[in-house]
Amino acid sequence: MNKVAAPTATVPGRGFPGPAPEALQRLVSACEPVPGFLTLLYTQSQDFDANQAKEAWAEIDSEIRQLFERGQREGAFRTDLTAVWFTEALYNLFAGAAWVIQVGRGAPRDFTHMVTELLLHGVSGS
User: Fold this and answer.
1) Is residue 16 part of a domain?
2) CB under 8 Å to 59, separation ≥6 — which residues?
3) Residue 114 pLDDT class (50, 70, 90 cuts)
4) What pLDDT does 5 receive?
5) What's the rounded Cα separation, in Å, for the pair 87 and 13?
6) What domain range is 67 assigned to?
7) Scanning 34, 41, 58, 64, which has the fewest C-beta atoms within 10 Å of its C-beta?
8) Distance from C-alpha of 32 to C-alpha of 25, rounded to nearest angstrom
9) In sequence order, what DSSP letters do the residues of 51-116 get, joined into one string?
10) Could you tell me if residue 18 is inside a domain?
11) For the packed helices 20-31 and 51-73, what is the interaxial angle rounded to 10 degrees?
12) In this structure, is residue 23 part of a structural domain?
């Protein structure tokens, strides 16, 4: 297994059963231990020469985007913004929360709450 495929296989939250907002919260909580890895994959995904690396990221990206699309179809998430936009916002919230924690301006225990609350209040249909 190559260096990218090994950790990618352990990315939590794959497949998102249940109501979309709850699935999103579980995804964020599950990603709490690996935001740096996800940020690395996200920022470097276009620079990798290895097809496996691009494929691994494309699969993760697709599953997360599909979660937002499902939430939009169910009426749980806003439809005036695209699922792609929500997906990109999630990656950037992961990176931002990881950075805030790394430099000591936030507590690790707040990661899930910070990311989920900010994102859900921006995507909730109500």
Assistant:
1) no
2) none
3) confident
4) 43
5) 14
6) 34-123
7) 58
8) 11
9) HHHHHHHHHHHHHHHHHHHHHHHTTSB-SSS-HHHHHHHHHHHHHHHHHHHHTTSS-GGGHHHHHH
10) no
11) 150
12) no
Mean pLDDT of 27-37: 84
Query: How many domains, in total, are found in the chain?
Result: 1
Under 8 Å between Cβ of 66 and 23: no
2 belongs to a structural domain = no
Q: Tokens 């924690």 sit at which residue?
A: 101
* First-residue to last-residue Cα distance in the chain: 45
Token code pair at residue 112 = 């899930």
* Two structure tokens written together for 54: 């691009």
Asked if residues 15 and 63 have their Cβ atoms less than 8 Å apart, the reply is yes
The string of pLDDT tens digits covering residues 69-81 is 999 999 999 999 9
CA angle 44, 50, 28 (to 5 degrees): 45
For residues 104-116, average pLDDT: 90
